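Lecture notes, unit on protein representations.

Consider one protein chain, 619 amino acids long.
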Amino acid sequence: MRNLLSYLLKLILFWMALFLLQQACFVFFDTTRLSSIPNEAIRYGFQRALPMDLATACYLTLPVLLCCLVLFFRQSEALRRGIGIFLTMAVVITAFINVCDIALFGAWGTKVNHKALSYLAYPEEVMHATSGAPVAQLTVIFLAQCSLAFLVLFHIDHQRSFLPTAKWQRFVAPVILPVALFIGMRGGVQPFPIDRSWSYHSAHPLLNLGALNGTWNVIILLAEPPEIATNPYAFMATEEADRRFNAVHPKGGGPAQRILTAQRPNIMLVLLESWTADVVGVLGGDSGVTPGFDRHSKDGLLFTNFYSTGFRTEQGLCATISSFPSQPKTTIIRQYGKFDRLPSLVNVLDSAGYASTYYYAGDVAFANTRAYLEAMGYDKVHDENSFPITKRTRWGAYDEELFTFHLKDARTAQQPFFHTVMTSTSHEPFDVPVDEGFPGNDQPQQYRNSVHYTDRTLADFLDACKQQPWYDSTLVIIVADHGHFLPHNRGNFAAERHRIPLLFTGGALKTELRGTVNATFGCHVDLAATLLDQLNLPRTRSLWSKDLFDPTIPHFAFWTFDDGFGIADADQCQVYDNLSGLLLQRKDTTRSTAQDAEQLLNGQALEQVLLDQYLGLSQ
């Protein structure tokens, strides 16, 4: 029995050492993220990870123990080979999970989750989306981890005899050892087993996720259902949450400002892939990246405090067309029986005589997008199969070819029309092979380069639109589908990552509004009510959408990320992490605690109501 105990202890210590190495790879992969984190906090993050690492080590040791208990009664070379194969596969899998977590944190600010796993149904698109990751570095990390692990593992004596020296051991070992491992797997003898919240101890997401064992996380993901069955964000009584929701979403008195010169103008919605305010000059971003947008903003009405509801295209699309915010951990557009019950801006416009068309230069089937668009009532949906493509990135035709196709198609379009044009060239991996004056192969420069390309082609497109006979009676709305962590490596939760451009322009915009700015706070869900009020049309069934031109109601931006939310208005911006219960961001630190607490409670109520509504859509 002593041999068996020694063997199991060595395996547990082996896994603990490997997990420590993997945590170090995750935390120190990009040292620029550590600049604002004290060394003591980093050290404590490693200490905090130990209980979950131990639990994971027990998970991986349990199958070995079960095999060893058979060897406790008789020798079996087949079982010993099985143990060797299992340990080899486990090392490879844990190392692979670790490098996936590193890559995903850089792009999404999270580790592997159900949302990430759901995209595996589209392997080609996943390859495209992740091809901007530092594959060479991650490959080196993967191979180094496997090599070191095998070096240590092969020095453990796997051939020792486990036959007991006393008969009583055959009765005690099969009871005591599995029970001990089960206690380790649950993290101790406390009433509730260890869960993800154990890892959340800091206001720095990097340290929280570093303490979350990636292998344990995947084991739990595979064990738990991919779709939530109950609201995980029940912060308060339902009545209180509803009261707060209604208080910040009053009916309102309608717009105090009319911006249109026509009663039923054409409407062209241009969704810009991955544009963040950090690179838009007129919004205080990097100079020289968006000169075309900056020039056209002088001919339009620019919103300076507009935010994305999420960080994926389908989230921004759903929030814009259905006025339904993005959800933590899941995406409604992926859920049949839910997204088709959402309200639709397209249907309201259709009832007023608008002909609707969606233009995209890639595969519109990705992430259920075509199914969603059809359910929302678009008359036509164009994608990469609708026109010949001469130049393309991994996501589809160059933006200039998409814009050219739209101009050609719009010549014969029924009016009034509602056209949605979705760009794609500025999507990672930013592989558009054109020189836009931003040299270098690092991701920030590649991102600036691709955004500048889209900006240049967008400006040419808008100039060409002005020559079209339909332009004078057209309202053009230009908005990003979501922001991006580049070029300044913003956290996935950060307000700066979610701040995006919104511009109203076109011939149907009143002359006196050209070159003006509007500082009202809002997000994607507000576009539908804002537009429909200007058209004197009934609003969609959404309770979330607010008219940005209505001064009688409170205006704010609300966004979610993997397990938290952000809320911002003219006075304060706060970002809250659900698991740790900590504030990740607080813009004005001089505000009173009472005022901040009230805003935070409103944010919690919004998240709670959002998930209640999400769950109710399938009932």
